[in-house]
């Protein structure tokens, strides 16, 4: 796939892990400029405004909600095609790396499109919720900010887990989580064919002892229709392939997610869209640029394959060829983002 920007990591002189731990031993070298992995919400606002201005109207940026601390939640729309794709980044505030990938995608498609990008824009329209949980980002926490919270999912006195409050039965006006309500309102207004939700997870290995760099999954709630599930599985297969091709050592697995209908992955499948979870592994500071590139390649490949029709020719059952995620990385090197467990389930 075409990527106008490229990122750089200069770390090749030392291993990220101890000699006894599985490699990723060295950060891959990819030429180009580094991007900020954690822009502040004010920096994000300025960057989006700059993209909108430089795109001469190709990118439309709007606030679709406001957090409890008064921060705007931004959506950016680009494209003119009949197929509608919606991406969401950073529902969990301490899972940041999908956000800079989305910014670079908007730059490439909206500000500096070449022939390939123009073909994508002719085939699809993208809606990108860029950092769904800005309060959580600024506070470096998974949850939103709500000191009055007494949640079923979240932490009392801290906040709600936004990715448990997307149930089709929960109307936006009744949702106690403004971040989840904003995503749902944008979903209803945009009516996407495919919804993709970008998160981060801890560190895991596969059965061969190689580190997993990303995990993906389709809706697993039994109420999701066959057509929505097939499209989701096609998108998982395309995204996993793109991420594994992103850099040497990239290694995708399936994510062992649950069936709860309030998770975005399940909720938007139940609401009639293809729906995919992408979890970037927190493989350490020296791998962040490569992981941002991997998220970008997932985003671009899904848009490109939807635009040229190749997404719909993929065998949905090919998603079953992706291996299961293995055990946590030995030594406890879980990095920044931690997996979240609810009794008997490992949820998104």
TrEMBL record:
<feature type="region of interest" description="Disordered">
    <location>
        <begin position="137"/>
        <end position="158"/>
    </location>
</feature>
<keyword id="KW-0378">Hydrolase</keyword>
<feature type="signal peptide">
    <location>
        <begin position="1"/>
        <end position="25"/>
    </location>
</feature>
<keyword id="KW-0732">Signal</keyword>
<feature type="region of interest" description="Disordered">
    <location>
        <begin position="312"/>
        <end position="348"/>
    </location>
</feature>
<dbReference type="InterPro" id="IPR000834">
    <property type="entry name" value="Peptidase_M14"/>
</dbReference>
<feature type="domain" description="Peptidase M14">
    <location>
        <begin position="36"/>
        <end position="306"/>
    </location>
</feature>
<protein>
    <submittedName>
        <fullName>M14 family zinc carboxypeptidase</fullName>
    </submittedName>
</protein>
<feature type="active site" description="Proton donor/acceptor">
    <location>
        <position position="279"/>
    </location>
</feature>
<comment type="similarity">
    <text>Belongs to the peptidase M14 family.</text>
</comment>
<feature type="region of interest" description="Disordered">
    <location>
        <begin position="23"/>
        <end position="43"/>
    </location>
</feature>
<dbReference type="Pfam" id="PF00246">
    <property type="entry name" value="Peptidase_M14"/>
</dbReference>
<dbReference type="GO" id="GO:0004180">
    <property type="term" value="F:carboxypeptidase activity"/>
</dbReference>
<feature type="compositionally biased region" description="Basic and acidic residues">
    <location>
        <begin position="137"/>
        <end position="148"/>
    </location>
</feature>
<keyword id="KW-0121">Carboxypeptidase</keyword>
<keyword id="KW-0645">Protease</keyword>
């Amino acid at each position: 796939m075409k990527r106008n920007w490229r990122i750089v990591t200069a770390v090749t002189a030392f291993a990220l892990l101890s000699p006894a731990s599985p490699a990723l031993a060295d950060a891959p070298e990819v030429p180009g400029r580094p991007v900020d992995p954690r822009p502040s919400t004010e920096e994000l606002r300025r960057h989006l405004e700059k993209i909108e201005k430089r795109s001469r109207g190709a990118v439309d940026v709007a606030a679709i909600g406001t957090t409890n601390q008064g921060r705007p939640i931004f959506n950016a729309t680009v494209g003119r095609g009949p197929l509608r794709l919606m991406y969401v980044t950073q529902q969990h505030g301490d899972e940041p790396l999908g956000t800079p990938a989305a910014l670079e995608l908007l730059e490439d498609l909206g500000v500096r499109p070449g022939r390939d990008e123009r073909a994508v824009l002719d085939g699809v329209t993208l809606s990108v919720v860029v950092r769904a949980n800005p309060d959580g980002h600024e506070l470096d926490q998974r949850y939103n900010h709500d000191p009055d919270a007494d949640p079923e999912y979240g932490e009392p006195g801290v906040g709600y887990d936004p990715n448990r409050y997307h149930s089709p039965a929960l109307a936006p006006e009744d949702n106690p989580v403004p971040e989840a309500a904003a995503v749902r309102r944008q979903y209803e207004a945009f009516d996407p064919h495919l919804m993709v939700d970008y998160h981060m997870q801890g560190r895991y290995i596969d059965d061969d002892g190689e580190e997993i760099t990303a995990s993906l999954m389709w809706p697993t709630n039994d109420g999701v229709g066959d057509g929505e599930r097939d499209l989701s599985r096609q998108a998982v297969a395309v995204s996993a392939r793109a991420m594994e091709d992103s850099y040497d050592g990239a290694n995708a697995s399936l994510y062992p997610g649950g069936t709860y209908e309030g998770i975005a992955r399940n909720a938007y499948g139940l609401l009639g869209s293809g729906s995919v979870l992408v979890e970037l592994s927190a493989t350490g500071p020296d791998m962040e640029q490569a992981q941002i590139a991997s998220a970008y390649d997932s985003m671009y490949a899904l848009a490109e394959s939807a635009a040229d029709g190749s997404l719909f020719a993929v065998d949905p059952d090919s998603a079953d060829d992706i291996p299961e995620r293995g055990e946590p990385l030995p030594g406890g090197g879980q990095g920044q983002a931690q997996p979240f467990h609810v009794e008997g389930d490992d949820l998104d």
